[in-house]
Design brief:
Distance between the termini: 25 Å
Shape: globular
Number of domains: 1
Structural class: alpha/beta
CATH class: Alpha Beta
CATH topology: Rossmann fold
Radius of gyration: 18 Å
């Protein structure tokens, strides 16, 4: 948990855990201009998910360079700090493609809603790019989008080269820039990239978060055992519902007790050190 604002030293913001829950004080700081419930800007933004829209209206004053991963059992959001590289690259795995996409889109949409394009941008490399293009149509989040490219075409390779160049420039201190979410919605398809593109992607997964370039990939649960080292490259592995939790045991050496979490519909979890942080997607019912 973050320290209450009243406990912060003057002009010294308290450090935030990379995955965290907001304090009550943070939720009351201010209403960002782009989250106000009235006005032309708000009315021009179509509803992506009514529950997510309601969440953004309710959670005012969140820190900059923040994205929302989901909601905990107490209805507080799980926050990802895009300025803290500790979580590393994120991998989302579950059975249903739509649920995997929903996790990725929640991160993208909330990062865009809480930040200007000068602070956060995103790139989508997809096995079905038309899905993302249709999803972005009419959304204000589209202003943050660098491109939507097919994982099977040359534009994908060029963007991975470009992001690798940006990351290298940032590491040497010769350039800076916004946080960039590198969204890959099918890790299995990414394994079929050309050799140079795979090398660049590997390097970005390992080094990108340190310079605010955030690989966020998704994979079908049953595909994880066959992805081998690619799964291990991702420091934060977010597991969701699956009919065969044993695939997670093979991929991440989980105990039988831990595996039981992922047999429940709507349950996602990410391990932070030795503990699991459980959450659900906005709009999904709480567990009884």
């Amino acid at each position: 948990m973050n320290a209450p604002m009243s406990e912060m030293p003057p002009n010294q913001p308290a450090p935030r855990p990379p995955f965290s829950l907001p304090s009550p004080a943070e939720l009351k700081l201010r209403i960002p201009r782009f989250l106000r419930p009235s006005g032309a800007r708000a009315s021009a933004r179509p509803a992506l998910n009514p529950a997510l829209e309601g969440l953004l209206q309710r959670l005012v004053g969140l820190p900059p360079q923040t994205a929302i991963l989901g909601l905990c059992e107490d209805d507080l959001p799980v926050l990802l700090d895009l300025a803290d590289p500790t979580p590393g690259a994120l991998l989302v795995a579950c059975d249903e493609r739509e649920q995997r996409l929903e996790v990725l889109r929640t991160l993208v949409y909330t990062a865009a809603a809480l930040n200007s394009p000068r602070n956060v941008q995103f790139l989508v490399l997809s096995s079905q790019p038309l899905e993302w293009q249709n999803w972005l149509e009419g959304l204000s989040a589209a202003r943050h989008c660098l491109a939507v490219e097919s994982l099977e075409e040359g534009g994908c390779d060029r963007w991975l080269m470009k992001l690798s160049t940006w990351a290298d420039q940032r590491r040497t201190g010769s350039a800076n820039g916004p946080a960039v979410l590198l969204v890959v919605d099918d890790l299995s398809a990414a394994t079929r990239l050309e050799y140079d593109a795979r090398v660049n992607f590997d390097w970005l997964v390992k080094e990108g978060p340190g310079v605010k370039i955030w690989p966020m990939a998704a994979a079908e649960a049953e595909a994880l055992p066959g992805l081998g080292r690619w799964v291990r490259l991702f420091k934060s592995r977010i597991f969701g519902p699956t009919l065969d939790p044993q695939v997670y045991k093979q991929a991440a050496q989980l105990s039988d007790e831990e595996l039981a979490m992922f047999a429940e519909a709507g349950q996602f979890a990410v391990r932070i050190q030795e503990n699991w942080l459980k959450f659900r997607l906005p709009g999904q019912p709480e567990r009884v």
